[in-house]
Design goal:
Radius of gyration: 63 Å
Strand content: 5-15%
Structural class: mainly alpha
Helix content: 55-70%
Oligomer: single chain
Distance between the termini: 105 Å
């Protein structure tokens, strides 16, 4: 068995070889993976064969030993062999992982000078920099990381290819492998290297972001922006220079000029502006080309900039080594070079086109001009058509004179710039330019010679033209006058759409007439140009066109407002949503405010503004008139102030009817009416609520068994409501005109609540005093005998009060019960109660004089004591109020009934210390009498006990009754007093001994 185990280990050792194999040169990933897959088939077969060999060895052992395969011994053995195989599998996987990490770890690669594994390319695809194949993991194609993941899966599959022992060769070691710490650690190292290559390749790719503008932007659009911005800037500078020159000329024509030294900035601007060549875009030789372009130095800078970038791209290193990857950068370099070349071509192609087209235009102009001057009008003086044709040619040449030289110079500069940047040209354009310009110069001289020949004819025609011009000027002035008189500059807000459309027709008609006159004016200007006459401005035509444009805008606004308001007119009164219409009208108002300022001079403008403003005033009024608080009396007020009849309840009452009322003229009055309606509604709602609450308000009673009648419960809520409603009514009455419609009802409820307040105030006092006195005058025999007249008064009042309470409980309505008559009755009761209480107070004062300790208790407590004078068990409840130390008495119980008698055997302090009386104390007679006797009994008892305690204190030191035992036999007060007496006597005795010569008397006493 030991030999077989060694064979198993040898088989496992043969598996312990790296599954990954590589050549010592980089390969494309797909090519590498094809070779790897083919080799993995062979290695998988070898591992499976080794596994089967191990299983055969174990099977042979079991057959030789004839063991019980289900027994524990065999099971232990197979578990041991499985453990050995598992360790071998783990060792094989970690070996492959270690080899892979060695091949891709950057430190290992540098240490062993390892060649890259993969060849990858980086290029530009669909305006994105991408690797080929990609580096990052993907499920769409083979990537570099996908290859690594595939290798790792192959390593793990060793656990699938090796079978378990002793389970009919079924099962594998995949679960144990996945849980193995060694394998997890090996994988972590591999993927650390993978993470490094991901970061490195991503950083390398991002290094090209500085060129991103080459593929993210359109070179043609950038060029167009460049031309537009530079030309605009240069033309503005050119215009500024012209204005400065004109201002300087005007100054020289006037007074003595003031010398002003230009600033440095002005000088620099002038120098910069003088370099710009402005060309009129309408020149005949500028057809199909840009007349004004940026300065050529800017073209030079742009082209040079791109050429520099092209050189930088060419200098990019290729290939680049990143760890175990060899990156071919050439595809990206080529793509970037194409992008830069395209950008350069935009500028150079533009210049080439400018050169070709301009030269072509100049050639054509020379040819056409030569053809046009072949016949001399002087030979045919009456041929006006020929004269006009020649004059047109002369005008064209005259227009180009002085400008062609600048254009030709610019063409030469363009050619030189293209040659500077080695741009290929189809012809020798410098020679072509010289030839074409020479032909132009010759042609120009011919034209000017011809011009001198036909000068008499030109003068004759100019005089005839001047007469026609004068007639046309008068025609233009007449048109302007008619224009101002007949066009609709005014507007009536009552106009409907039909009338507005007629105004549009007028505007259109005058527009057509204006276009015809402008065409004539243009023709006459051309003739003036031909005959070198001063051109007429025809400013009135420009004014007409400007006025027509503004007039059209004004009537567009009027039509917009009219259409909108007409759409609203049909809305039913109840369906009008004034808030929404207000927003729409505000939009109209804002649009009218934004109209050109010049329109404000037209008579129609303030009318439409006023119309919109009135609508802006009206719509909030409509919103307010929809208020639920508007009732018939308020609508009647509106009819009165507008002076117009209408029925707001009519189903056909609509927005148009509201417009006819012209409510915006009465906005202040209507706002007051609506405000009044709201406040009146608020008052009405509040008074109705008060009325409803008090009609339902009833007294609540509690059945007092002690008093054998029904009494009022607490009035807190009712009084709070009463106070609040009284304040509300006072506030209503202070509202002035807003309360007039309901003033009588408010006054009525104010008076009613005033009565309720007065009645319940007196009633509560009566009930309170009655409750305090009823037990005294009805149940206290002592009071009844001492105050017989007042008792009779109270008995009569008591009867009347009980009957009143019974009557009120049967009819508990507060308003019905609180009448002025009832207040008179209650006032009488209160007077009687006060008389009884006064007599009672005088009686109580006599009692206090008889037993002064009664001053320590309240009158109510004293009345309770007096009313229970014959019931000492009730009176003792107040002993603590009369005496500072006494709290209660212990009464002797009747032996037969067990009830307490009037005889007391002991007293209790407030700390419930008990002190027995020396003899029973009987609580009989007037209460003030027996309470005085109780006070004497208490003193006598304590004095006798104190004397006894002093006598027994002599035995403290004898040991018969030590002090700590002696204290337990007496109450605290007696013990303290006795102790103080004994201490005082002994100290005095020590002083006497000290005087007698015993110097240590005090020290001796202190020791005791």
């Amino acid at each position: 068995m030991k030999g077989d185990l060694e064979k198993i280990r040898e088989a496992l050792g043969r598996m312990d070889k790296p599954l990954l194999e590589r050549k010592n040169k980089p390969m494309l990933p797909d090519e590498f993976m094809n070779i790897h897959s083919a080799k993995m088939m062979d290695k998988k077969t070898n591992i499976r064969n080794e596994s089967q060999g191990i299983n055969r060895l174990v099977k042979e052992i079991s057959e030789i030993l004839k063991v019980d395969k289900k027994g524990p011994t065999w099971k232990n053995y197979t578990d041991y062999v499985n453990e050995v195989v598992l360790n071998g599998v783990i060792k094989a996987i970690t070996t492959s992982c270690a080899y892979l990490d060695e091949q891709i770890n950057p430190e290992s690669i540098e240490k062993h000078q390892l060649a890259p594994i993969f060849d990858v390319k980086i290029g530009l695809h669909k305006n994105q920099i991408m690797y080929e194949p990609e580096i990052q993991e993907s499920d769409k194609s083979l990537t570099v990381i996908n290859c690594v993941n595939s290798w790792v899966r192959d390593f793990v599959n060793i656990a699938n290819w090796v079978s378990r022992i002793g389970h009919d060769n079924q099962g594998d070691f995949i679960v144990e492998v996945r849980d193995s710490f060694e394998i997890k650690e090996a994988f972590a190292k591999v993927y650390d290297s993978v993470e490094w290559i991901l970061k490195e390749t991503e950083a390398f790719k991002q290094g090209f972001d500085s060129y991103k503008y080459l593929w993210d932007s359109d070179p043609s659009q950038i060029f167009e922006n460049f031309v537009e911005e530079e030309v605009t800037k240069e033309i503005e500078a050119y215009n500024a220079m012209i204005q400065q020159q004109q201002a300087a000329a005007a100054q020289q024509d006037g007074a003595q000029p003031v010398a002003k030294k230009p600033t440095k900035t002005q000088s620099e601007n002038k120098e910069e502006v003088e370099e710009f060549v402005y060309i009129d875009p309408d020149l005949i030789i500028m057809s199909g080309v840009r007349a004004n372009i940026p300065k050529l130095i800017l073209f030079d800078e742009k082209i040079t900039h791109f050429k520099t970038i092209q050189q930088k791209i060419a200098q990019i290193q290729n290939p680049v080594r990143k760890g175990w990857l060899k990156i071919d950068v050439q595809p990206l370099k080529s793509a970037l070079d194409v992008k830069v070349t395209s950008a350069v071509n935009v500028y150079t192609d533009f210049l080439k086109t400018q050169i070709k087209q301009t030269l072509g235009n100049l050639k054509g102009f020379n040819a056409n001009t030569n053809d046009g001057i072949k016949k001399n009008p002087i030979d045919d003086e009456h041929n006006t058509e020929l004269l006009m044709s020649v004059m047109k040619i002369i005008a064209e040449v005259r227009t180009l004179d002085g400008k062609t030289e600048k254009i030709v110079k610019r063409l030469r500069d363009m050619v030189n710039l293209l040659k500077k940047h080695s741009v290929g040209l189809e012809e020798d354009y410098l020679n072509v330019i010289d030839t074409v310009y020479s032909n132009y110069y010759e042609t120009k001289n011919k034209v000017f010679d011809l011009k001198a020949d036909i000068l008499p004819l030109q003068t004759r025609e100019a005089k005839a033209l001047q007469k026609r011009l004068d007639q046309f000027s008068q025609q233009v002035q007449n048109f302007r006058t008619d224009f101002l008189q007949n066009l609709p500059f005014s507007y009536d807000d009552k106009m409907d759409i039909m009338a507005i459309n007629k105004c549009y027709e007028q505007i259109t008609s005058y527009y057509m007439d204006l276009c015809k006159i402008e065409e004539e004016a243009k023709e006459y200007n051309n003739l003036e140009h031909l005959f070198e006459m001063e051109q007429t401005n025809y400013k009135v035509l420009k004014d007409c066109r400007a006025d027509l444009k503004l007039l059209k805008i004004m009537w567009d606004a009027i039509a917009m407002v009219t259409y909108q308001y007409d759409d609203w007119k049909g809305k039913n009164w109840k369906s009008i949503k004034a808030d929404l219409l207000t927003e729409n009208n505000k939009v109209l108002s804002d649009q009218i405010k934004k109209l050109p300022r010049e329109i404000r001079n037209f008579k129609g403008y303030p009318v439409v503004v006023e119309k919109v403003k009135n609508m802006q005033t009206l719509l909030p009024l409509i919103s307010q008139l929809h208020s639920e608080f508007m009732v018939d009396r308020h609508w009647e007020e509106i009819r009165r102030i507008t002076g117009k009849e209408f029925n707001e309840k009519d189903p056909n009452f609509n927005f148009n009817d509201i417009l006819l009322l012209e409510l915006y003229k009465f906005d202040t009055a209507i706002n007051e009416i609506v405000d009044k309606a709201q406040k009146e509604a608020k008052i009405d709602k509040k008074i109705r609520k008060i009325e409803s609450e008090w009609i339902k308000q009833v007294f609540e009673f509690v059945d007092e068994k002690e008093y054998e009648t029904k009494l009022f419960q607490s009035f807190d809520n009712m009084i709070e409501l009463l106070d609040q409603n009284s304040m509300d009514l006072m506030g209503m009455l202070s509202q002035g005109k807003y309360v007039e419609f309901i003033r009588p009802l408010v006054e009525q409820w104010r008076e009613t609540l005033k009565n309720v307040d007065a009645v319940i105030t007196v009633w509560l006092k009566v009930q309170k005093n009655w409750r305090r006195l009823v037990n005294i005058f009805v149940k206290s025999e002592d009071i009844r005998s001492q105050l017989p007249d007042d008792t009779k008064k109270f008995e009569a009042l008591d009867k009347e009060f009980r009957e009143m309470m019974i009557d009120c409980s049967q009819n508990p309505g507060v308003v019905d019960s609180c009448t002025p008559e009832r207040k008179e009755v209650l006032d009488g009761m209160l007077t009687t109660l006060e008389q009884c209480e006064k007599a009672l107070n005088e009686y109580l004062e006599d009692k206090k004089k008889a037993f002064p300790r009664f001053y320590f208790v309240s009158n109510q407590a004293l009345l309770d004591i007096l009313s229970n004078g014959n019931n000492p068990h009730k009176v003792v409840e107040y002993l603590g109020d009369c005496f500072d130390g006494m709290k209660d008495l212990e009464f002797i119980k009747d032996e037969n009934t067990g009830a307490k008698t009037k005889s007391a055997r002991a007293m209790y302090s407030k700390e419930y210390e008990k002190v027995d009386f020396l003899s029973p104390f009987v609580c009989e007679g007037a209460v003030e009498t027996w309470l005085s006797n109780l006070e004497y009994k208490m003193r006598a008892t304590l004095a006798e006990i104190l004397e006894e305690a002093r006598g027994s204190a002599e035995f403290w030191d004898a040991g018969e009754r030590p002090r700590h035992e002696w204290i337990k036999g007496y109450c605290a007060q007696i013990s303290l007093v006795t102790t103080q007496v004994v201490w005082t006597e002994e100290v005095n005795r020590a002083f006497d001994d000290l005087e007698g010569g015993a110097d240590s008397a005090m020290k001796e006493y202190l020791k005791l």
